[in-house]
Design a protein that fits this description.
By secondary structure, this protein is of the alpha+beta class. The protein has ten helices and five strands, in the order H-H-H-H-H-E-H-H-H-E-E-H-E-E-H. It starts with a helix and ends with a helix.
Length: about 230
């Protein structure tokens, strides 16, 4: 009943100026009106407004502003700092490629469980983490949809790229550009061998910010496993 009252009140207020957040909340209440919907509304509000400041009580749009992946990283660093552990300077590796990677609502229907799996995937560091989370997801929810498999592959690729000093992997049409830190630990002899092996599909520039261009096949979808293979050879 309280949900219907809240919805009615928002409908009354809708004739006034509503910002984007208000519109999202209105849509949330419209979607979840059945008994027991309070948790779903709370989870959706978490996505809209954010989880609050790090280890504090204030709620605002912080997580929404920085993104869930980075939020988990910042939270982990804050916990380690409070424990007195040393935190070395780090950087974020950005991946922006044309691959469908997400958890479909039809695969994991529970919003809390979906958020939990997203967090675990975002924290993948090596093959052991990759295998463990893949096995866990399959045991709990069945065979992986292609989108979830892509999500796992992107997570491990991102971790391996980070280890190589790659700060971004960005796709524009059929060209994938991997940009390196100026002090990236790249084996120049391996790189030269790769340029010969891939015969013009790889182009390297050693400017102020070095980058490596990979020319993917225009008539084929990008294979994230092939991209990972290239990174592993650096």
């Amino acid at each position: 009943r309280s949900t219907r009252i809240a919805y009615a009140y928002l409908m009354y207020r809708k004739d006034k100026v509503l910002n984007e957040v208000s519109e999202k909340r209105l849509q949330t209440i419209r979607e979840f009106t059945e008994f027991g919907s309070g948790f779903k509304i709370a989870m959706r509000d978490l996505e809209i407004r954010g989880a609050g400041n790090l280890l504090g009580s204030e709620q605002h749009g912080y997580m929404d502003a920085v993104g869930y992946d980075l939020y988990c990283k910042l939270l982990d660093e804050e916990v380690r700092r409070l424990k007195g552990e040393s935190i070395s300077e780090d950087f974020e590796t950005l991946i922006d490629i044309s691959i469908s990677a997400f958890i479909p609502g039809s695969y994991i229907k529970n919003e809390e469980q979906k958020l939990e799996i997203y967090k675990k995937i975002s924290l993948i560091k090596d093959d052991n983490d990759y295998d463990d989370i893949q096995e866990e997801i399959e045991d709990r929810y069945g065979d992986l949809p292609a989108q979830v498999q892509n999500l796992l592959d992107i997570a491990i690729t991102k971790s391996e790229a980070h280890e190589k000093g790659i700060i971004s992997i960005i796709q524009k049409n059929s060209i994938i550009t991997m940009s390196f830190k100026p002090d990236a630990n790249v084996d120049i002899f391996r790189l030269k061998a790769m340029l010969v092996e891939y015969k013009g599909k790889l182009i390297f520039s050693s400017k102020l910010q070095p980058y490596l261009n990979y020319m993917a096949d225009e008539d084929k979808k990008l294979d994230i496993k092939e991209l990972r293979q290239i990174i592993s050879k650096l």
